[in-house]
Specification:
- This protein is of the alpha/beta class and 328 residues long.
- The protein has one domain: TIM Barrel.
- The chain contains nine helices and nine strands.
- A six-stranded parallel sheet has the order 3-2-1-9-8-7, covered by helices on one side.
- Helix 3 links the parallel strand 4 (83-85) and strand 5 (113-117).
- The longest helix is centred in the C-terminal third of the chain and has 19 residues, at 309-327.
- The chain is globular, with a radius of gyration of 21 Å.
- The termini are far apart.
- Residues 1-26 and 304-328 have low confidence and may be disordered.
- The chain binds 2-acetamido-2-deoxy-beta-D-glucopyranose (7 copies).
- Residues 1-27 form the signal peptide.
- Residues 35-289 form the Asl1-like glycosyl hydrolase catalytic domain.
- Pfam families: Glyco_hydro_cc (PF11790).
- InterPro entries: ASL1 (IPR053183), Asl1_glyco_hydro_catalytic (IPR024655), GH (IPR017853).
Length: 328
Amino acid sequence: MLLCPRAVTAALATASAASTLILPVAAASSKRGLVFTPNVTAPADDKIWIEEPTTLTWYYNYGPNPESVYQDVPQSEFEFVPMMWGAPDSLDDTSFLSTVKSLIKSKGINITNVLSFNEPDGSFEYGGSQIEPSTAAQLWVNNMIPLQEMGVRVGLPACTGGSSGLPWLQNFLAECSELISSKDKQRNCTFDFVTIHWYGNFEGLASHMGEYSAAFPNKTMWITEFNLNDRDLEATQSFYNMSTEYFDRLDFVERYSYFGAFRSNVSNIGPNGAMLSDNGSLTDIGAWYLGRQPTGILPTSSSSLHLPLPQKVVAVFAAVVAAAISLA
Ligand SMILES: *[C@@H]1O[C@H](CO)[C@@H](O)[C@H](O)[C@H]1NC(C)=O
Ligand SMILES: *[C@@H]1O[C@H](CO)[C@@H](O)[C@H](O)[C@H]1NC(C)=O
Ligand SMILES: *[C@@H]1O[C@H](CO)[C@@H](O)[C@H](O)[C@H]1NC(C)=O
Ligand SMILES: *[C@@H]1O[C@H](CO)[C@@H](O)[C@H](O)[C@H]1NC(C)=O
Ligand SMILES: *[C@@H]1O[C@H](CO)[C@@H](O)[C@H](O)[C@H]1NC(C)=O
Ligand SMILES: *[C@@H]1O[C@H](CO)[C@@H](O)[C@H](O)[C@H]1NC(C)=O
Ligand SMILES: *[C@@H]1O[C@H](CO)[C@@H](O)[C@H](O)[C@H]1NC(C)=O
């Protein structure tokens, strides 16, 4: 697969800047993307992900329209992937289809992939879109099939990582097939890739991926939300390292996006999985994800519990300086 020019430039720039260092930074990854979560009070946070160098080649924002903050970055360098997310009030509603069509036809944005429903097997209370398989099937027929006919690739709905996911998908596919089959010709709704979410440890992730690979053989996979939630920093970093290395190595993993791109003190998955510290700096995981050297900044920047010794000394020194300044 070709690397995008911006990623190559970034990798070269980093390589030459770091040429005296032995430690290589992560290679630019064409699989890696951003789950965009906006920060309205600190809009500078939103720009962190497109600053050079970055490995990110695509993003989604749980909605059908691209972010205005990224409008100057070409689609070919940072691909926007629209998402339908949930069910509109009416089964006949084709506003997702018309929005995507207008992005392509009126705005000239080269949309080649879309995501369908977000955790339809999960309740609203936990961020799911709570859709009956039969409802989802009708909406799919009305919105996704016409996009597929235009050559747009569509992802199977992204269920929760729980045991309700596969049965929901089987029901959905059965309902969908019924809608498009006739008495003498059985047809199936098709999809271009499987989309999964995972919160938990690495072994659980690998086994979850195995179950989905068995259920949908020969399909590529996008992991559009994943993390080890509510664990200490070392366990979280170890999970991050193992899962991203695993995804990079597996051919059937087409894309992945780490959750999440927000500050640690608003995180709903515990502070250590956040890629920004509570004061808005990249944490080590945030920096690694962008292919940069670690920052040594803790998710909770006021604490220095997990710092290796040299950084701890620097942090203590900085705290002493800060105290001295505030006394002056
Ligand atoms: C749109 O993107 C696809 C996939 O990256 C590419 O193959 C195609 O050439 C692009 N089309 C245009 C008109 O840029
Ligand atoms: C449709 O899917 C079902 C279940 O996976 C499968 O048994 C059947 O052969 C498929 N039919 C067609 C026409 O592809
Ligand atoms: C998967 O792909 C391989 C190679 O293209 C093919 O031999 C095999 O039959 C496929 N399996 C299924 C279940 O479609
Ligand atoms: C994660 O990987 C980085 C190198 O990319 C390494 O410095 C760090 O020690 C690793 N952490 C864990 C907990 O495996
Ligand atoms: C947005 O930035 C503010 C600081 O201005 C911070 O308090 C808040 O936690 C941030 N929100 C997110 C979602 O990161
Ligand atoms: C997050 O931390 C920043 C200070 O670093 C603070 O300004 C902000 O109010 C905090 N936000 C929340 C929701 O606690
Ligand atoms: C956040 O705090 C860390 C140290 O606690 C500091 O290195 C970093 O520069 C701060 N970030 C911002 C954006 O102020």
